[in-house]
Design goal:
The complex is a heterodimer of chains A (115) and B (110). Chain A is an all-beta fold. Chain A has no helices and 11 strands. In chain A, the strands form 2 sheets. In chain A, strands 2, 4, 5, 6, 9, 10 and 11 form a 7-stranded mixed sheet that branches. Classes of the chains: A mainly beta (115), B mainly beta (110).
Chain lengths: 115, 110
């Protein structure tokens, strides 16, 4: 069966510090991978998605970047965190490229607080 | 582009029936999905409608009217554990990503 691992679960970082969040998927190959951010009590904002190794699409210009060094690994990074980067970061995967369902399966999330 | 609107909050009591609405504006339509997210948790897929009508999955049903660009999620026999946020979503034209609605927070009281 497929599983998605996302870590760390919580993170407290000072303003100006770097960030690296990692997400890995097991049990499937060549998945679409996604990074979302969710502010408290708000909706899901798509940050990046990837359809293959080294292929990254950015949805929102910002202080963050993403990389996909391996088929089932997706990394979210920042060189210098801002207060506004605080939020709940969710990684997701999907292999449903043909049908319109595109069921996405989410990791447990990382709650980032930038102080 | 796509946009989806939902009520921000809905309240109901245990055992009741509640309907969560979603209206959408899309350039091309490829079906409407629903996800549930408990506080602090990850969103999970609930249902999907590609055609008009009602899809039933246990206590949950989802309805779609493509002519009205409208859908809803119907929750029956509400339980306390149904307290969560519910998101509708549509697939983009490229089929590679979803666009999520603003989310509806459902509060179920005893």
């Amino acid at each position: 069966s497929q599983t998605i691992h996302q870590w760390p679960a919580t993170l407290v970082q000072p303003v100006g510090s770097p960030l690296s969040l990692e997400c890995t998927v097991e049990g499937t190959s060549n998945p679409n991978l996604y990074w979302y951010r969710q502010a408290a009590g708000r909706g899901l904002q798509l940050l990046f998605y990837s359809v293959g190794i080294g292929q990254i699409s950015s949805e929102v210009p910002q202080n963050l970047s993403a990389s996909r060094p391996q088929d089932r690994q997706f990394i979210l990074s920042s060189k210098k965190l801002l207060l506004s980067d605080s939020g709940f970061y969710l990684c997701a995967w999907s292999v449903d490229r043909v049908s319109a369902k595109n069921i996405q399966y989410f990791g447990a999330g990382t709650r980032l607080s930038v102080l | 582009g796509q946009s989806l609107e939902q009520p921000s909050e809905v309240t109901a009591v245990e055992g009741a029936i509640v309907q969560i609405n979603c209206t959408y504006q899309t350039s091309g339509f490829y079906g409407l999905s629903w996800y549930q997210q408990h506080d602090g948790g990850a969103p999970t897929f609930l249902s999907y409608n590609a055609l008009d009508g009602l899809e039933e999955t246990g206590r949950f049903s989802s309805f779609l009217s493509r002519s009205d660009s409208y859908g809803y999620l119907l929750l029956q026999e509400l339980q306390m554990k149904d307290s969560a946020s519910y998101f509708c979503a549509v697939r983009d034209r490229g089929f590679q990503k979803l666009v999520f609605g603003t989310g509806t927070r459902l509060l179920v009281s005893p």
